[in-house]
Amino acid sequence: MGNFKTSLTALAVALSLTACSDQAANESATTAAAPQTTQTQQASEFSNVLLQEFPGPYGGVPQFDKMKVEDVKPALRKGMELNLAEIEAIANNPEPPTFENTIVAMERAGSALSRVFKYYGIFSSNKSSPEFRAVRTEMSPELSAYSTKITQNEALFERVKAVYESEELQSMGEEEKRVVSNVYNGFARNGATLDAEGKARYAEISKELAGLYNKFSSNVLHDEENYVTYITEDQLGGLPDSFIKGAATAAKERGHEGEYAITNTRSSMDPFLTYSTNRELREKVWNTYYNRGDNGDEFDNNDVIKQILTLRDERVELLGYDNYAQWRLEDRMAKTPENAMDLMMKVWPAAIARVDEEVADMQAIADEEGADITIAPWDYRFYAEKVRQAKYDLDSNEVKQYLQLDKLREAMFYVAGRLFNFDFTPVPEGKVPVFHPDVKVWEVKDKDSGKLIGLWYLDPFARQGKRSGAWATTYRSYTTYDGETTVLASNNSNFVKGPEGEPTLISWDDANTYFHEFGHALHFLSADVKYPTSHSGVRDYTEFQSQLLERWLTTDEVINNYLVHYKTGEPIPAELVQKIKNAATFNSGFGTTEYMASAIMDLLYHTTDPDKIDPDAFEREQLAKLNMPEEIVMRHRSTQFGHVFSGEGYSSGYYGYMWADVLSSDAAEAFREAPGGFYDKEVSAKLVKYLFSVRNAMDPAEAYRKFRGRDAEVDALMRDRGFPVPEDK
């Protein structure tokens, strides 16, 4: 939402953006009316680009070509000053509180600061530097204090409470009612009901946490940037040509021409561990990656985690909760940590049982080859690939030859056209400012009416200063309460760029991730809501839409038209496609277990007394109790678990990917059952109407029931992963 939402997400932005979708930390209130007028007039007078209204075409676009680190600090401070003045005006309005003069006024406020946060997010995630990190460290406590001034503004909360308890509420539309409820709960759940002493301590804790989140993410980024493994030509055994060329380019960019760089990111680590025949190097790269933030030096995160857990626990105790997870999940679909853990435990036994089978298959091959080893974590991907070839005659590197980044993007556009009626057209270079030459932009229009929906930005490649992983975000969201706005959505990845003049080839898993993140963008682009607050997602639901979109990668229309060989242009052979489908549940034990270990640990961290937790020991002890296979580690080990410890977007909520996957598996079966399959017009229309366009303007559980006619069931997920369906249904 406007000022209140901006105030709370200030922390999320300031503390580093780590979620798969950064939407919640990047919503914009595009406005034009009353309380904003003074701010807009002032902002237009500023020489500081970060505060200025977005100029140019498409309803205005960020001036990414003019952003400078030195502008961040003064822009943040001025934006906070302007926003707090608006807050005071709303809080002290002599008129009786109404939806319009209180809630809508808050939605409308904070636009200048919201614009600053767009640039701040780019500096934090896409263009980080030591200079920016110093600014972020300095500003984190100021942003926290600013946020607290809003959440603890008693006069403002009294007005919100009056609207929440008013007769007016009963006559409002459904979206308006939900906005009021979300705004009220946002205050109540963030200390507004505490006494003076409690509020002071709450504010102090929030400020301390802001600094710790910043420190955690900076430590991880330090290890990602500084622990690069350089290898020589005689150490390239087993590696595909495409990977070798990308590693050579990465080394050259880092001043190591003639060598090959294995960067400390998943997109580099994963293929190296899959193909390298050098076991000693595999172990080194594995350790380098999984020890991020856990090297016993000044950038070690173990103590940071302990401090975060202790402060979080104290903060929710002030609010009357038994533990942090209880507070965090109250407004999620799961409702309680017990419900979330129950879902995990329904799947966990089948996942680790499958791992045992996978390891046995790998060990058999290693023994047959006379390797004289016991499968270790750095062997898993390497021997899994051998099993894949042996059991399914499927070579991941062969598949990769048909997975060109540009062609997959065209495939995503095709799917968006069929399901959402969107048409994507490249924006001529130079028409829209970008923050790096790799970033490209497309116009998005309705295919029938030609109406402009917005723009889609794509930043696909890894580079220094860019955080690892893949994510989606918005620079402006669709709202109508103050006039219709155009959407500015973006996708960001860390693919290793192909050599000059050659296409970028990616793995099947990366292709799935590409579709996944595009699902978030489609969620932004298809929105049809009135207010900014309606974009604030329910975390264990917002991954559902993106996980569902992954299913379209394997549709015949995509496979037959967009998966073509990067040299010959020949379509992927039908027999290779069949192998891919036959192997669809291959290695599901590994994928499910490494994810779930992180999700379970997240819940355990936040339901256990922090006094009893030493992170390094706690991780080992709890995983041992779960019978965690020793050949696998958590997907995100504690010291690098940015989803949970460099902000609060996914804290106590990493289970949400599994919760969302239950929904996506169940929804996918609705398409399979339809006459038109995955492109069935009737089911597609319901998909857009109930699952994409409404955002958070409708209760997610109700929205899903409107789409499916019932609640989702876990059986579909178990079938998808090739696990036995529980008999006690």
Quick recap:
The chain has 729 residues and is mainly alpha-helical.
- Rounded to the nearest angstrom, the radius of gyration is 25 Å
Approximate shape: globular
Oligomer: single chain
Helix content: 40-55%
Taking the sheet with the most strands, its summary is: 5 strands, mixed
Q: Helices and strands: which structural class?
A: mainly alpha
CATH topology of the domain at 3-151 and 153-190: Neurolysin, domain 3
Protein name: oligopeptidase A
Family: Belongs to the peptidase M3 family.
EC number: 3.4.24.70
Cofactor: Zn(2+)
Please tell me about this protein's structure.
- It contains 29 helices and 7 strands.
- By secondary structure, it is mainly alpha-helical.
- Strand 4 (440-446) and strand 5 (452-461) form a beta hairpin.
- It is globular and about 80 Å long.
- The strands form 2 sheets. Strands 3-4-5-7-6 form a 5-stranded mixed β-sheet.
- Belongs to the peptidase M3 family.
- It comes from Alteromonas confluentis.
SSE inventory with pairings:
Elements: H1 3-14, H2 34-45, H3 72-91, H4 99-108, H5 111-125, H6 130-151, H7 154-164, H8 174-188, H9 196-226, E1 229-231, H10 241-253, E2 260-262, H11 266-275, H12 279-290, H13 302-318, H14 324-329, H15 337-368, H16 380-392, H17 396-400, H18 405-420, E3 422-426, E4 440-446, E5 452-461, E6 471-476, E7 487-495, H19 508-525, H20 539-549, H21 556-562, H22 574-582, H23 588-605, H24 615-625, H25 642-645, H26 656-673, H27 681-692, H28 700-708, H29 715-720
Parallel strand pairs: 5-7
Antiparallel strand pairs: 1-2, 3-4, 4-5, 6-7
Helix pairs in contact: 1-5, 1-6, 3-4, 3-5, 3-6, 3-7, 6-9, 7-8, 9-13, 11-12, 11-16, 15-16, 15-23, 18-19, 19-20, 20-26, 27-28
